[in-house]
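Pasting as-is:
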Amino acid sequence: MDRTSKRRGGSLCDRITAGALAVIALVGCIYIVRYALLGKTLPLVTMCIVEVLLILVAYIAWRGRAPWLLLADGVGCIVLFSLTNSTTVSLFNFGFGIQAAAALLGAVLGTVFAVRARQGLRKGALVPTVALLLIVASVLAFWQVNVAIDKSAEGAAQTELWAVPSAYDSVDCDQPGTVERFTYQTKAYATDERDVEKSAYVYLPYGYDESQQYNILYLMHGTGDDEAYWLVTYSYNKTMIDNMIANGDIEPLIIVTPTFYVEDDCADDLDQLTYSFREELRNDLMPAIESTYSTYAESCDEDGFTASRDHRAFAGLSRGAVTTYHSAFCGSLDYFSWFGTFSGSRTTAEYFQETLQSEAFADYSIHYLYVTSGNFDFALTGQISDYADLLEVEPRLTAGENTTFDIFPMRYHSIGSWHLALYNYLQKVFVGLGG
């Protein structure tokens, strides 16, 4: 190969790598602006760090004529795209796909021309490489230090929670509660109203006594899971609850984990079930549960449930969070006054206003609404928007007083995030109630 061909190959390698760098940097700057407009500090800081790292890798690949380094950006952006996007929920972070394509194309084509030109690495990439390594090391060290601090902590809910204290979810409690499978009769309210038998799981605290009254939490799973999710599939949630009660962090309570699924109904439109569960909850599940177990409901009818609403909570994750909004918060405010929505919302301001401020619900207080997400959760941006809309139309909610929105660092749409959410939520519900 003559010198002219080598120079041409090297020049093409540089142009391709520079083009990939330009695309990655441009999309990164747009991302930072978009996240700044969301008004949440942790997601903005996270995105700034992510984009600086992506840009630094691309710069080193260009400056050092090492286009294969762009593979790191490509793989990283594919992972980020899969974590922060959902075709059915949000594609707010579709730009990671653009960055991935630019990085992978630049890596392949740039490497081809670099090999053809037979040119080695260029000097000049040392400083940005050192900067990259320092940033990565600092982020990892900061992460691990905070996880270690939280794991060794003693109780107390935290806004930026990195981990549940080890004493709560990794050590079996010597005063364990029990989990029972509970069956009940209901109807297929979203379709033909046929009779259906369903089941839920019920957590009873250690020393459960039918002569006493207990606060009760209804806790919903997400898409693709079932009633066993919270307490059986991920049994360390039960271990955590046992230890929190034994340690005196929370009062003994009953927890019910139902499912919004009704056999194979609405398989093509599960959102219908997030609304129709209201009828099952009010007509069948609550009467069956609270006539069997000892709650604050003096009678299992409308009067009894309304009178005891301050001792009743509903929370859920993902589509279970959507169900919480549609069937409990907006659909049963007369029966519940404590709510938790983890990694899910999908509810418009118009629906919030239409339901919450209707004649049926306008006079009921809202004790607490707890909202959470992970900073890499694909539901995050939608939650931020819906939460802002809710606060605008609902005067009974005041941020920092009876509602909070916690975003957990280094978490995505998974049980790791929801385990933290449950830990915090249990310390916020039923606070300040008398016997």
